[in-house]
């Protein structure tokens, strides 16, 4: 993978997955009926963004179930995990409740797929998000990204390795 | 993405088959997972067929948010293992996937000769919780993404869990290794 000198190098080609070193584009998306979440509100903590094609589909469910099982590991790194798909907030609510997910699902619903496109994680032909993972550091910079074949559950090893590679916060009081 | 088994067979593992077998099959499974239940008789028939050419190890990968009884079932298998009855318990759990509540688990323990009070205490105190977690995390770091996940001679098996395909893959792995 080539190091990108300009952080904006990929921003104007929406089909390319944003690469490490790129500042993570900020967004505000519905996280529950009547509630929104802004990425920038999580500055100071690592963030795991999980783009996935559809609520309820078998592979997505398995992938998110695995991450749900690993919330303690992610919290050990003080990391927040956000799921994102183009499903509506009501669909997300039903899905998250049914599967007991301990993390928010964000609705990239209107304008459809806007945030997924910003990250280069949109499947225009299918009208869904890609199956893509990002690890964002405490300063809001993407440190790892991965595009999985849409039918393959990428597992969690890449996320954990990326979290372990993040520098520990300097001067942070704990 | 890692698709290699990062933890080779360890002393704590539950293993059947000779250590020098040309092919080693490692399964990461969940006793409450229906796909693992379906794979169980397939693995048993394959073990019969390959005999001494196969070493088989089973490790726990309970998705307990999705399968509320899976963690305790895995812990009970470990408890039975502590008393030398892992494989008997393993069979009972897969044959009774719809009855894995704590009371049933203790009953299965008694039926394989494990003291029921001790088994109940093992569950209640989480005596084997960390051992199960250790296996789970080893699976995560090896790229286990769901259950069942199989590794053949350390490489993840990504094809369908179908008796014919799995058998053929194991047979060719055994053949390749015995010619070295």
Question: Can you put this structure into words, describing what you see?
Answer:
- The complex is a heterodimer of chains A (174) and B (180).
- Chain A has 174 residues and is α/β, with parallel strands linked by helices.
- Chain A has five helices and nine strands; from the N terminus they run E-E-E-H-H-E-H-E-H-E-E-E-E-H.
- Chain A has helices at residues 58-69, 71-76, 89-99, 114-118, 157-165; strands at residues 28-32, 35-38, 47-51, 80-85, 105-107, 122-123, 128-129, 131-136, 142-148.
- In chain A, a hairpin with a 5-residue loop joins strand 8 (131-136) and strand 9 (142-148).
- By secondary structure, chain B is of the alpha+beta class.
- Chain B has one domain: Glutaredoxin, CATH 3.40.30.
- Chain B is globular and about 50 Å long.
- Classes of the chains: A alpha/beta (174), B alpha+beta (180).
């Amino acid at each position: 993978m080539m190091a990108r000198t300009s952080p904006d190098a990929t921003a104007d080609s929406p089909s390319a997955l944003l690469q490490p070193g790129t500042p993570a584009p900020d967004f505000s998306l519905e996280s529950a009926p009547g509630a929104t979440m802004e990425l920038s509100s999580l500055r100071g903590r690592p963030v795991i963004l999980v783009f996935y094609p559809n609520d309820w589909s078998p592979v997505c469910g398995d992938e998110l179930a695995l991450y749900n099982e690993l919330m303690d590991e992610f919290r050990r790194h003080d990391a927040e995990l956000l799921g994102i798909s183009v499903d509506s907030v009501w669909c997300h609510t039903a899905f998250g409740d049914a599967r007991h997910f301990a993390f928010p699902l964000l609705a990239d619903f209107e304008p459809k797929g806007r945030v997924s496109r910003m990250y280069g994680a949109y499947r225009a032909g299918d009208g869904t998000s890609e199956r893509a993972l990002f690890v964002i550091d405490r300063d809001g910079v993407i440190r790892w990204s991965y595009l999985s074949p849409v039918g393959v559950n990428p597992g969690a090893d890449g996320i954990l390795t990326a979290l372990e590679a993040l520098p520990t916060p300097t001067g942070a009081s704990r | 993405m890692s698709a290699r088994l990062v933890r080779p067979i360890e002393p704590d593992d539950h293993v059947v088959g000779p250590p020098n077998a040309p092919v080693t099959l490692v399964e990461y499974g969940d006793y409450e997972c229906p796909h693992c239940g379906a794979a169980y008789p397939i693995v048993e028939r394959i073990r019969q067929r390959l005999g001494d050419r196969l070493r088989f190890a089973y490790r726990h990968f309970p998705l307990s948010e999705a399968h509320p009884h899976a963690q305790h079932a895995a812990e009970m298998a470990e408890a039975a293992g502590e008393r030398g009855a892992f494989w008997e318990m393993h069979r009972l759990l897969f044959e009774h996937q719809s009855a894995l509540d704590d009371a049933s688990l203790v009953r299965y323990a008694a039926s394989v000769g494990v003291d029921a009070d001790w088994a109940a205490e093992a569950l209640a105190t989480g005596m084997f919780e960390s051992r199960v977690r250790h296996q789970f995390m080893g699976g995560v770091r090896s790229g286990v993404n769901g259950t069942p996940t199989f590794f053949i001679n350390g490489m993840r098996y990504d094809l369908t869990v179908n008796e014919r395909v799995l058998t053929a893959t194991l047979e060719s792995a055994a053949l390749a290794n015995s010619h070295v």
